[in-house]
Amino acid sequence: MSHAVGRLLMVGVGPGTDLRFIPPAVTSVAAVEPVAAFRRMAAALARRNGIAVDVVDGVGESIPFPDNSFDSVHIGLVLCSVDDVAATLAEIRRVLVPGGRLVVLEHVRGAGAMGRCQDLIARPWSRLACGCEPNRRTIDAIAKAGFDTSGLRSIPRTLVPPPCTPHLQGVAVVVDE
Hints:
Layout: E1 6-11, E2 26-33, H1 36-48, E3 54-57, E4 70-76, H2 85-95, E5 96-107, H3 112-128, H4 138-144, E6 147-148, E7 152-155, E8 167-174
Parallel strand pairs: 1-2, 1-4, 2-3, 4-5
Antiparallel strand pairs: 5-8, 6-8, 7-8
């Protein structure tokens, strides 16, 4: 989250846990969340902590804001669960200004045996974990959507147990067309 600047959109804000980590360089915050209970929780957490945020109903595949509305977009453990990763990333790119920042913290498909294990359990895991697919190749999808991914790094070992490891963290920047 430390890479976020200016006008920030949080896609899939959930209950708002990440709102507490907004850096001082952020000037305004909006959030998109499809789950009504999470929207209420995020708004309540923001009020309790004195954070001004506009939490709206929406999904990543159809972000309800105009083109070029944000300097930064944050996704935290979201792309594993969206219905359409490519559409979500296209929408994120649309609402970002040229040169805008995609701030990323996602769990992704591992390499080797871990990746093969994630592939094997992906379908049953998704049913048990609210649509989470632990084997998504997220960095490839971000690059294909028109972002420079050189600011993203893989974190192979985290406190989160398999199959939701490794993690991808950092910032990807919109590449000018």
